[in-house]
Amino acid sequence: MNLRQAMARLTMLHEGPGEGYASNAPIALIVADDAKAASEAIVALELAGCIARKPISFAEASADLSNYDGLDLILIEAAAAPDALLDVVLVRADTLARERSLGVVATVLPEQIDAAAAQLMGPRAQLLCNPGEADRVSAISTAKWRARGVMDDVNREAESARLRRLSEEVARIAETLARLTRGDDAEPRGGVRDRGTGYRGPDAGPAVEVASAEIRAVIRARRLRAQFFADELFADPAWDMLLDLFAAELERRQVSVSSLCIAAAVPPTTALRWIGTLHDAGLFERQADPSDRRRAYIGLSSKGLEGMRSYAGAVKRAGLHLV
Prior knowledge:
This protein is of the alpha/beta class.
């Protein structure tokens, strides 16, 4: 399907949705300068049960996005977009999404990740990079439910549940090791994580120094597994990113979004989704680059840093190795 055929098809859908579309189906606007990307967005929207308006170019979107009423979603296909126009459109889309509670899904190239992450800061924004069809449909479905105020997307819930299990497991291990170090045989107290305010380290004696070299060694050891086993057997992007950011914090070094995606050792769209999940959980925080508005950094929040320090300290006090 070429762009002209896609636009004709979408015009037909917008003017009169056919059978299979609910009368209240979410309406999306596609911003694209690339025919292939626009066609893929069309297919994903249809599979997600959405209706799209006639696609517009980046030049049109940069002029004024606020003229488009009745939208639930904005899809931005950044391939072939001029850098200057991409920045403008992303900012306008982010502003419109905040004002009207819209969902935004932006598909970017690897070299556009940092620029896009710097401009799309809203809680309803999602970034994709080299996504497959399933990734697109999943992101659109999530955006659709968010736009309608329903947070029950199956994939999102699965990731949130996995994150909670990871957090609880870290908390349980840290508390158990702390009790062993103290020689305390009593039942654990409720964990190192305060349910109301987030992570809180265990009261287990003096603080233990943790060097960035120790964390980097753990990361290298984890990467070595890929030489002997299939990558997907040990995919754990949340923990890989937490380790990388912890090491960077100890080194007083900033980490870009694109660099963190590499550290996650999973496809970029998966890494970006996890960055959003960990940000929503209050473990990550975005940090603007004052010298370059087209760059954003990711760092551990105070809650995330305290949790990592508590875990690493508890492990070392118990005489065990970090993993």
